[in-house]
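Dear H.,

Thanks for agreeing to be a second pair of eyes. The structure we're designing against is below in C-alpha cell form, covering all 172 positions.
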C-alpha cells in the first residue's frame, strides 16, 4: 500500500500516477530523451501505456509503498514528467528516477521534484539511503544527482542492463 501523499512545491504538484495518465505516459516514454537515456520500453499503443502503468508504477505503489509519480505544473495542472523511486532487484536501496518532456527540461523542474522526493523518502518513508543509476554520457542527470548531494560510487555492471552504468548513493 502506498504511503504517498500529494506533494506541492513552489511550482509543482507531485502525485500518484493512474490509468488516466496513459496519453502522457505514451508521449513521455517515446520522447527522444527517454529513448536515449532510459531505453525503449516497447510502448507503441495506449494499451501498452496502460500495461506499463499497471505493471510498473501502480504495482510498485502496492508492493513497495512508493513508485514513480506524475509531476505537473501547479498553475496549468498539465503533466510535464515523472519522478520517484524504483525498487530494483540488483540495487540495495531504492533508485531515484526522473524524466521530463523535452520542452520542460533545463528549467529546474527535475531538481525541484527530485529534491521533494528525497525529503519525502526521509520524512514519510523513513528510508536511510537512496541510490541512482545513470548512463555515463547523461551529464545533465549526473549534475542533478550531484546537486542533490548524491555521491558517485563508480561504474558498475548490473544484471539485465545493456550498458555499464554510474551508480550514485546518498544517506538521508
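And this is the sequence the design step returned. I haven't edited it by hand at all.
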Amino acid at each position: 500500500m502506498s504511503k504517498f501523499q500529494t506533494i506541492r512545491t513552489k511550482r509543482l504538484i507531485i502525485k500518484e500516477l493512474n490509468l488516466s495518465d496513459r496519453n502522457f505516459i505514451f508521449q513521455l516514454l517515446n520522447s527522444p530523451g527517454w529513448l536515449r537515456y532510459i531505453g525503449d520500453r516497447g510502448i507503441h499503443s495506449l494499451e501498452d501505456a496502460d500495461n506499463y502503468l499497471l505493471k510498473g508504477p501502480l504495482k510498485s505503489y502496492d508492493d513497495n509503498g512508493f513508485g514513480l509519480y506524475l509531476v505537473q505544473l501547479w498553475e496549468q495542472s498539465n503533466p510535464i514528467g515523472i519522478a520517484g523511486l524504483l525498487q530494483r532487484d540488483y540495487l540495495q536501496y531504492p533508485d531515484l528516477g526522473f524524466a521530463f518532456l523535452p520542452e520542460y527540461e533545463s528549467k529546474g523542474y527535475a531538481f525541484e521534484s527530485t529534491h521533494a522526493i528525497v525529503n519525502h523518502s526521509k520524512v514519510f518513508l523513513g528510508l536511510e539511503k537512496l541510490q541512482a543509476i545513470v548512463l555515463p554520457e547523461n551529464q545533465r542527470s549526473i549534475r542533478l544527482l550531484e546537486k542533490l548531494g548524491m555521491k558517485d560510487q563508480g561504474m558498475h555492471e548490473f544484471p539485465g542492463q545493456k550498458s555499464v552504468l554510474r551508480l550514485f548513493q546518498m544517506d538521508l
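Two observations from my side: Strands lie at 7-8, 12-16, 68-73, 79-86, 95-100, 129-134, 151-156, 165-171. The chain has one domain: 7-127.

Warmly,
E.
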